[in-house]
């Protein structure tokens, strides 16, 4: 028996349309399964916690649902699989799961090859792909109110442009493994377990979810035009050569901001604070990949 945690509103409608096909593919692959439908934010975590400690948990949803389900899987014997139908599906990308091919995603689960990946903690909150503070988090917050007909990359670009109008740079100090590596005004600081955020943006193109390391990318002084100019390079993973972009690697990160800042944790919003303590837990989550 496998348990399918299904978010009907994932992907601004992709999730509900994908359910019949996903169930058909699972049955053809020989999987006896039960569908557990999420009804509110945080519900996926509650559903998974009620399952056996060695359950196979398959998320039919996006990064938010993956984040909730994975939070109840890591540190247990539960194994997580993903059938990606969200707006960004960055966690699936980190696992090399094609978000536009549900048949192949089911085949990955059917092959039953288990991989142990790292889990991050930010102020004791788990994350599985990335934590962004600054402009990136403000964009994620803005995306929640984007028009529903905008999806994926288009929705992100809409949120990015509208966020620029009011965005201000704030001073931050970055420590990696106890060493001060940056101090100054910053557009954003993004800390990664996986390489991509926002469905298209390769902030940390070399990040791997099972190398025991965090990849930190900091954007220094960028005005509005400079921010608009760096976005296309970020989509191609070609931004790291810019003189105002700084990258670091380590297992523990401390961000100390001059004023409280929003953060996104795998795309989910965290309340503003000035200090973010981030660390990596190696090989803490079992996944099908």
Give me the secondary-structure topology:
Elements: E1 2-6, H1 14-28, E2 33-37, H2 43-49, E3 56-61, H3 63-71, E4 79-84, H4 90-94, H5 102-111, E5 114-122, E6 125-127, E7 130-134, H6 135-143, H7 152-164, E8 170-176, E9 179-186, E10 188-192, E11 214-219, H8 224-235, E12 245-250, E13 252-265, E14 268-288
Parallel strand pairs: 1-2, 1-3, 3-4, 4-14
Antiparallel strand pairs: 5-6, 5-14, 7-10, 7-13, 8-9, 8-13, 10-11, 11-12, 13-14
Helix pairs in contact: 2-3, 6-7
What would your notes on this structure say?
With 289 residues, this protein is an alpha+beta fold. It folds into two domains: 2-112, 3-Layer(aba) Sandwich (Rossmann fold), CATH 3.40.50; 125-282, Tumour Suppressor Smad4 (Sandwich), CATH 2.60.200. Helix content is 28%, strand content 37%. It contains eight helices and 14 strands. Strands 1, 2, 3, 4, 5, 6, 7, 8, 9, 10, 11, 12, 13 and 14 form a 14-stranded mixed beta sheet that branches. Helix 2 (43-49) packs parallel to helix 3 and helix 6 (135-143) packs across helix 7. The longest helix has 15 residues, at 14-28. The two termini are 19 Å apart.
């Amino acid at each position: 028996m496998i348990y399918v945690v299904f978010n009907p509103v994932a992907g601004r409608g992709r999730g509900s349309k994908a359910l019949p096909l996903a169930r058909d593919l699972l049955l053809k692959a020989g999987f006896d399964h039960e569908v557990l439908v999420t009804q509110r934010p945080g519900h996926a975590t509650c559903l998974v916690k009620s399952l056996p400690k060695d359950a196979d948990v398959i998320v039919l949803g996006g990064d938010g649902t993956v984040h909730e389900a994975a939070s109840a899987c890591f540190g247990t014997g539960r194994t997580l699989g993903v059938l990606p139908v969200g707006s960004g599906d960055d966690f699936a990308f980190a696992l090399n799961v094609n978000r536009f091919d549900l048949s192949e995603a089911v085949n990955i689960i059917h092959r039953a090859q288990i991989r142990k990946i790292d889990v991050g903690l930010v102020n004791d909150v788990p994350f599985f792909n990335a934590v962004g503070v600054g402009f990136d988090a403000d964009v994620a917050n803005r995306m929640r109110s984007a028009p529903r007909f905008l999806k994926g990359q288009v929705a992100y670009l809409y949120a990015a442009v509208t966020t620029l109008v009011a965005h201000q740079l704030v001073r931050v100090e970055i420590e990696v493994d106890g060493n001060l590596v940056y101090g100054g005004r910053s557009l954003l600081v993004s800390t990664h377990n996986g390489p991509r955020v926002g469905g298209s943006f390769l902030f940390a193109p070399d990040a791997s979810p099972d190398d025991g390391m965090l990849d930190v990318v900091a954007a220094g002084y960028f005005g509005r035009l400079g921010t608009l100019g760096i976005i296309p390079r970020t989509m191609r993973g070609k931004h790291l050569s810019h003189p105002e972009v700084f990258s670091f690697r380590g297992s523990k990160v401390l961000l100390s901001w001059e004023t409280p800042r929003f953060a996104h944790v795998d795309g989910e919003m965290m309340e503003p604070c000035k200090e973010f303590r981030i660390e990596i837990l190696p090989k803490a989550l079992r996944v099908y990949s």
